[in-house]
Amino acid sequence: MRREFIKDVLKRKDFGTEITVAGWVRTRRDSKGGFSFIELNDGSCFGNIQILAENSLHNYTSEIVKLLTGASVSVKGKLVESPGKGQSVEIHALAVKVLGFCKQEDGYPLQKQRVPFEKLREVAHLRPRTNSFGAMLRIRNRLAYATHKFYQERNFYYLNTPVITCSDCEGAGEMFQVTTLDLNNLPKTVNNKIDYSQDFFGRKASLTVSGQLEAESYACALGNVYTFGPTFRAENSNTRRHLSEFWMIEPEMAFADIDDNVRLAEDYVRYLTSDILEHCSEDLDFFNKRIQKGLIERLTKVSEAVFKTINYSNAIDILIKSGKTFEYPVKWGIDLQSEHEKFLTEEYFKAPVTVVNYPKNIKAFYMRLNDDNETVAAIDMLVPGIGEIIGGSQREERLDVLQNRIRELGQPIENYWWYLDLRKFGTVPHAGFGLGFERLIQFCTGMQNIRDVIPFPRTPNNADF
Ligand code: ATP
Ligand code: MN
Asked: 406 alpha carbon to ligand 1 midpoint, in Å?
């Protein structure tokens, strides 16, 4: 079937031309004069195209008047200037071919009235046909495209890192185990432990929580690389910003320090916001009106902003001096909780802020130890409404310091043999970070719940569809 995309048709002015469109009926109403108006959407843009179908069409009474919300049709017709308000063009149908009815008795769940997001999650297979999820996915798509554009323009190579991993050295979160052992009949060793040598990979394996360590290996050969892949965390955290399966973008740069890292993170976030402001204005208008007032203004500010960077120690001072009582008391050494992040970005700075140089005890072993021996060269970017969107660091490139950190944490050093090799053989300063793709989309759309910015969310007790 040769069909035009509605997004292109809506911009055309060559009235009188015959064209074909196809999509799903959003609404249909009869008019007294013996014709129907059909609002048709094909997902190519936020807007619908209006179809005028007259009763002279051969299937008018047998089919067209039976079209309900959700039905699918293809329409051949003439492009005409629309006399009605709200659209500049419409199509006068020469033929309406019904592809699929939506029968009343089958109970299509997406009727004209708005369905709450909680309810839509129960019909995650149909929710892409709503305004909100169409707009969300188009923005998600654009942010993915802009991500590749951004890194490709800056000489970063795109790298795929493994989803299944045997290195438990990542420590970024609880892992999902991958096994083909018979759980009802587990093989045991002489010490009565599970014998993983009989498992699929000959050892215990899991789904990755981050591609960073593997990305470091490629950065320490090709210079700049980035990953963009799924990551998995088995944390039992039921919050509006945690998923069990989410997508992360992880750039890694050789010959780079913490300042380069902060600069890259800021450039990247600025680039993304200005890109969608330019390319997704119609969808952003919707979120701005219906989901979060002031969204576009906030994104515009971010796209032009010089970001704030502060030391962790200063952030702690600000929190203490704020005079606020936090649920989780503030003192030097604590990990920032979401209430603290909220205060810093939403009340104090009223802008994104990058907090740097955290205490080593609350951060991962691979972060570079600062000269004070107390803090590491970590960076976390916090944004209003979400909190942490980026976490990263300059990596420890000194073999002896890295070995000491691993020993300090009581970890078996032999697990890290290949990671230590990167320091043994031609080590270089390098740095990188991870940006949570769904948190970014929350930030860019104002959507409250992370379950509503990914097509099919996985969270504790939920892996439907
Ligand atoms: P948080 O403290 O917010 O749970 P984290 O410090 O555990 O996050 P990192 O290990 O630093 O997260 O991961 C890098 C980025 O991945 C985070 O900045 C965030 O944007 C995103 N992220 C982390 N965990 C999740 C999750 N469970 N669901 C969605 N995104 C996540
Ligand atoms: Mn983090």
From this structure: 22
Q: Which long-range contacts (CB under 8 A, 24 or more apart) does 339-348 make?
A: 340/315, 341/382, 341/387, 341/388, 342/387, 343/319, 344/315, 344/318, 344/319, 344/382, 345/382, 345/383, 345/384, 345/387, 346/384, 346/385, 347/322, 348/318, 348/322
In this structure, the number of other CB atoms found within 10 A of the CB of residue 187 comes to 12
CA distance 422 to 399: 9
Residues with CB under 5 A from ligand 2 (ion): 391
For 406, other C-beta atoms within 10 Å of its C-beta total 20
Q: Do 301 and 345 form a contact (C-beta atoms < 8 A)?
A: no
**The pLDDT of residue 16:** 96
pLDDT in tens, 118-135: 999 999 999 999 999 999
Residue 250 in contact with ligand 1 by CB distance below 6 A: no
In ligand 1, the atom with minimum distance to the C-alpha of 387 is 3
The pLDDT value given to residue 86: 76
CB 104 within 8 A of CB 440: no
The pTM score is 0.96
**What is d(CA 416, CA 218) in angstroms, rounded to the nearest whole number?**
16
Segments in the chain below pLDDT 70:
168-172
Residue 97 has phi, psi (to 5 degrees) of: -105, 120
Residue 98 neighbours by CB distance under 10 Å: 16
Q: Identify which ligand lies nearest to the alpha carbon of 382.
A: 1
First vs last C-alpha separation in the chain:
29
Rounded distance from Cα 300 to ligand 2 centre (Å) = 26
